[in-house]
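Quick question: what would this complex look like in 3D?
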Amino acid sequence: MVKSAPVVKSVLRKIASILLLLLAVLVLNFVLIYAAPGDPVEALVGEMGGATPELIAELRATYGLDRPLWQQIGVYLGNVVQGNLGHSLYYDQPVTTLIASRIGPTLLLITTALFSAIIVGTILGVFSAQRRNSTLSHFVTVLSLAGFSAPVFWIGIMLILILSVSFPIFPISGMSSSDGTTSTLGYAMDVAHHLVLPALTLGLIYLAFYSRLARTSMIEVLEADYIRTARAKGLSRRSVVYKHALRNAILPIVTFAGLQFGQVISGAVLVETVFAWPGLGTLAFDSILRRDTPTLLGILFFSSLMVVVMNLLTDLLYRRIDPRIKTS
Amino acid sequence: MTQNLLSVQDLEISFRTAAGEVQVVRDLSFELAQGEVLGIVGESGCGKSITALSLLGLVPNPPGRVSKGRILLEGEDIVTASERRLRQIRGNDISMVFQEPMTSLNPVYSVGEQIAETARAHFNSSRSEAWERAIEMLQLVGIPSPERRAHEFPHQLSGGMRQRVMIAIALVCEPKVLIADEPTTALDVTVQAQIFDLFRDLQHKIGAAIILITHDIGVVAQMTDRVIVMYAGRKIEEGPVSAFITDPRHPYTRGLVNCIPRLSLDPSDDPEPLFEIPGVVPSPSDLSLPRCAFAPRCRNAFALCLEKSPPLLPVAEGRAAACWLETEKPG
């Protein structure tokens, strides 16, 4: 069957609009940073302990900061197209190298937190939707309210106080305390040990959201006419709930998971900072403090790239789950 | 009297509301014989759909429940049956075609799968056997190129096609009783006719008894053997379909029958004004009053009608009506 043709076409159209979107993001970010107060060269000079006006002018010329805005943008765009996101002012490394070295920890943290939250949240939501006045159902409501209202750094600090300080079960911060002499397995265990608290912190926030979403979505689906049909057929309760209801109720969860996964960096900034997790979030935070504009721009660009790529993937995944999307 | 296939006795269905418990169906009794087509007629909200659901043990609970009475399927009470037993009955002994073909099929599974899983739930058949059976059923309900259609999803089919699929699901296990709750309300008139032809045809082939729930008197006249008229949760008249059409006894039934517009092609023929029954169906919470529920809308109501609710009494051979006019004369 020739089913793939329209899919390919719509994917191509999506990619074209994504490229345009990324261009707009690049320009906008650049202009915003340019307009922001604070001069990267002055920040750099401040770290160096002062410099002569001649050196400052030289530095400006080196980084192209003495040229007009539109020229700066032009040079920057040209570089980005060639895969060059610029050179970090602070780390004295290419921004791409810098991002590549930090993306691993962030992905590890986000995927752990997000996937655990989706799985646990969906299970909680499905169970509580079936018994709307049960203790579990009220627990889900309270949990999501708490998760929505409590700031993520507060949860992080509380967890550190309880599980690292009062009861020193988990390390306070960082990703590893090994000195490089341990085995691979030992290193992995060590990282996992360090991962628990930051992932739990971020996961709780996500869990609040997904348990609520799953509950609402499941309640809605369970009222649908086709669920009545499924019951009238004499199907088992398990089949009605997991085959007929869940498959439909999971659609909004997939959408949000895709969107949220795209927002890895913004989601991670606070948690990574609280736990000194060596990921993109801390890198972004530090770059802001240090006026390291090329790094910051690089992270922002990379972050929007993640968003659009995940949107595209979500779209494709959606087609697999919901047959209605294929034809429309 | 031979034992009937289905026997509903003194059925009462209650719903918990903010204003207390309300009986949406009361004192409902009827029999259904093998191979019979029984029509249940009434306006929206008269309790006919919830009665249908109760036959499958599917009254939404909470807030609803069967609060009194028995529903005997070949002598076995459905009201007190276990959920496990009910699952065996649903779709196998009693199955149902719903009003909304557009939303009654699951959008994420192919129609073939939705038919086949019903067969698998009740027979110990393999996936491929059930799939073959699904294709057979699609053929039986008149869907062209069933092998291809079986792989399609509900949104790829028209409303009429979807209702055929619903019928295929309902009939795949050759049930003893088929309940059709306004099966054509959502469909075009031409498609309606096709669906009813299909029902009649399949009834000959499979021999199921049918309970046809409708508010369309024309459909009743064409399809059914016997008719029950419900008003505000009660049965108010019962009898063979011919008597129902030609000699309705209850003023409400007369109103319903008169509501059918007549077609006339003669331009000189002064069109009669369309008949209507004044007023609206009373809300269930009004029903606690000790009067005939129809009295406020009845042209012939007299003092007694506002004092006491009339009992259902035989008015002729095989007929019954609940109206004081039949037994008492206005004085």
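Answer marked as accepted. The first helix of chain B runs from residue 48 to 55.
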